[in-house]
TrEMBL record:
UniProt superkingdom: Bacteria
GO molecular function, one term: nucleotide binding
Record-given protein name: Gfo/Idh/MocA family oxidoreductase
Keywords: NAD
Length: 387
């Protein structure tokens, strides 16, 4: 397969999973608007044609394309690749507005071109293993999911570049949270239909050291020595997204969920608690060698050892082996079709919940209804994008 990449920036490392000429796929063309992006692509993939012209890529006779642009340009590019008939991998989140996300799904639906969204956490061992426990019926019917996300690298990752501006991300509750909202939906087996949220720019808004970092990338400034958060330097000139957010969700199957995100913690990991009618599970750590605890026996002794401890598996490649599995699934899907572990509908529902939660957060915290997709479109995507 001859594959193209649009956008060679933060997620460009995925090229390594695609460019395997001896195994049936290669990166044949890279399109990037920036001189640095094109230079990086030319250096890392010497055999690929590099261009700044999207029309050239659309007309290059490629078999598939990865859209890895900044989030607020996903729809702008993906709608064109889909209408051109190119099986499209769109990085998550699908986009940063509900209108843009729906435009991507509409383009895929109307053109019949395969669409795949890069929610790699659906391949992360900790999430897959928790879902396997749930699907086995171990804790009964899921009634509640709680997620706490300690974003210890928040200052370096999200407050020194375009992520810090609403115009580019809508909110980090959406942009960063789309991962976890999708996982919550997947574990609970439903989608948010009503959401509310509160939040604040509690720390980074008071940091006065600012710099236009458009001439640099994260690797140029990232350091664990950038601590404590109030002593961060060279933050983005404009910061109008929240650095702490708390969101509540009512799902269409009656389950309740909550999501908390903080960008100035000293540690960096996700903690999921899933409570069912027969027990609960919770992960302590989210990487290889950490454990998922399973409680299914009643006790009144306070915190007790779990009935079962499940060790989190390891995997080769980024995100605990999730990235190679993600790209392998996309390439298979683009080549022969079939069902996938990720879902365009689920990706859209994560964006929709995040968008409405951001609106709630900024308008007093009241509950807002999340609009559903047309039934025919949902049926199409759930059937493996076959009519």
């Amino acid at each position: 397969m001859r594959v193209g990449i649009v956008g060679f920036g933060l997620r460009s490392s995925l090229w390594r999973q695609v460019h395997r000429p001896g195994e049936g796929s290669e990166v044949a063309m890279v399109c990037d608007l920036s001189e640095r992006g094109r230079a990086d692509a030319a250096e890392r993939i010497p055999t690929a044609e590099v261009t700044g012209d999207l029309d050239m890529l659309l007309g290059a006779g490629l078999d598939a394309v990865l859209v890895l642009t900044p989030d607020n340009r996903h729809a702008e590019v993906a709608v064109r690749t889909l209408k051109a008939g190119l099986p499209t991998f769109c990085e998550k989140p699908l986009d940063v507005t509900l209108e843009a996300a729906d435009a991507v799904l509409a383009a895929a639906y109307e053109s019949g071109t395969p669409l795949y969204v890069g929610h790699n956490m659906r391949h992360m061992p900790v999430v897959v293993q928790m879902r396997d426990i749930i699907q086995a019926g171990t804790i009964g019917e899921v009634k509640a999911v709680w997620c706490r996300h300690f974003v210890g690298n928040g200052g370096d990752y999200y407050f020194k570049d375009w992520h810090a501006e609403r115009a580019n991300t809508t909110s980090l509750l959406l942009q960063k949270g789309a991962h976890d909202i999708d996982v919550i939906h997947w574990l609970a087996g439903g989608y948010s239909r009503r959401v509310s949220a509160i939040g604040d720019l509690a720390v980074y808004g008071g940091v006065t050291s600012r710099r236009d970092n458009s001439d640099r990338r994260m690797g140029d400034w990232f350091s664990l020595d950038n601590w404590p958060p109030e002593e961060q330097t060279d933050l983005n000139p404009v910061i109008d997204v929240e650095d702490i957010s708390m969101m509540q969700m009512v799902l269409d199957n009656g389950a309740l969920a909550s999501y908390q995100q903080c960008h100035f913690t000293p540690d960096y990991w996700r903690n999921y608690t899933v409570i069912g009618t027969k027990g609960r599970i919770e992960n302590f750590g989210d990487g290889p060698g950490d454990f998922i605890h399973v409680w299914t026996t009643r006790t009144q002794d306070g915190f007790v050892a779990p009935d079962v401890k499940v060790e989190i598996r390891d995997g080769e490649g980024g995100h605990g082996g999730a990235d190679p599995l993600l790209i392998a699934e996309f390439l298979r899907f683009a080549r022969v079709g079939g069902t996938t572990q990720t879902s365009p509908v689920a990706a859209r529902e994560a964006v929709a919940a995040g968008v409405l939660a951001a609106q709630s957060l900024r308008s007093g915290g009241g509950a807002l209804e999340v609009p559903a997709l047309p039934a025919g479109m949902v049926e199409y995507f759930n059937a493996g994008q076959q009519r």
